[in-house]
Amino acid sequence: MKRKLLIGGVVVALALSAIGAYVWQSQAAARTTTASVQTTMVRRGSLAATVSAAGNVSAVNQIAVAFQTSGVVAQINTTVGALVKKDQVLMELDSTDLNLALRSAQTNLASAQANYEQTTTELNFAMRNAQSNIVSVKASLDAAKAQNAQNPNSLIIARAALDKATVTLQQAQGEYDKIAWRADVGMSSQAATLQQATIDYQVALANFKTTEVTINDTALKQAQTQYDSAQVALEQAQKNLTTTLRTAQASLDNSKLALEQARRNLDKAKVVAPFDGVVAAVNYSVGDSAGSSAAVTVVDLAHLQIKVTVAEVDVEKVKVGNPAQVALDALTGKTYNAQVSSVSPTGAVTQGVVNYPVLLELTDADNAIKPGMTANLTIEVERRDNVLLIPTRAVRTQGNQRIVTVQKDGQAIPTRVTTGLSNDSSVEIMSGLQEGDVVVVQQTTTRTGNVPSGMGIPGMGGPGGPPP
Hints:
Blueprint: H1 2-30, E1 33-41, E2 43-59, E3 62-66, E4 71-76, E5 83-84, E6 89-93, H2 96-178, H3 189-215, H4 219-268, E7 270-272, E8 277-282, E9 289-290, E10 294-299, E11 304-311, H5 312-315, E12 323-328, E13 335-343, E14 348-350, E15 353-362, E16 374-391, E17 395-398, E18 401-408, E19 411-422, E20 426-431, E21 438-447
Antiparallel strand pairs: 1-21, 2-11, 2-16, 3-10, 4-6, 4-9, 5-8, 6-7, 8-10, 11-15, 12-13, 12-16, 13-15, 14-15, 16-20, 17-18, 18-19, 19-20
Helix pairs in contact: 2-3, 2-4
């Protein structure tokens, strides 16, 4: 009896041992995993930090042109979609009255011009006559002055002759007086000498008086008077020339202004293209009454822009001149280039979010792009060339440190690094790594083995199984 019990105990023990071993092996198999490590090599390259934004295309230049006066539309010279050149006439009002006013102004200007030229000719002629007259009178005055300059010499000569004749007469009288007592004195030579001396004296006296009269003649005064009168006439001619010419010039200037105003009035009745572009809208038909509202809208499709909004956290990064890549919803598969042209200094709050308007100009726009198209932009705000790069997901943060796992000689070595510029895919390594180093990008764990569906043991039924 004891032997049977011993054998039974051994059998139970062996069975329990087998069950335990089987369970342990099954659980161990279920827990088996395989570690997979993805690595990459540190390389040199270019890295750009970007800001994403979206907006709509618009023309840099888009102007709705209106008439500058009111009237009836008489002629339309364009259609929507037409290419136009700067200053091309696109639409005109009825300008019959304006053309008449223009022709009248032209006629008045021609008349004023002719009057000015005739007045100038006549006044110049009168001026030349006055100048010629004063030259002639001046010559007469100079001659009279020259004659007067010579007369004092004649008077001196006449005075000397008179003085000599006086002395001779006195001497003759003295000689005559010496023999005056003689009865035949009248027949004497002294009497004859006295008589001749008396005659010579009288002649010298008469000549002296004649010379004095000549010097006091009014010829010089008359010449001076004529010269003064001629000078006054010349001055008056100059005044007349200045005054009359000013009047004629003012009339001519007024006629020119009237003509210019008539031309401007005629231009106001026309709508012209403000620049080279495409007609986007024609708002009148022939016969319509036109006022100050837009007549024609012209857009410049050669210069397109995109207005986007940038969040306040990114706006400080965006600078004028930053390049951008543009993708248009309507033009799948094509990418265009743009450049930031302005960044607004003031933002707008929408639902508690502050955004800043940013304007970019397309630099390689083509005819496929139309105003209004939706655009998605990637603005490059910073760029680094020839720098060390690794994937962003290879860097992890521990406190204030950046850690990268370097794989070297079969070992995984945590390494502290200094990072610089980064974007969603790559990060710049400024220190801690060298070109060619291998770093761990990602480590994944894969389970192997299956958990059994039952606890069966060979030769034995599992739980709930049939008996042996």
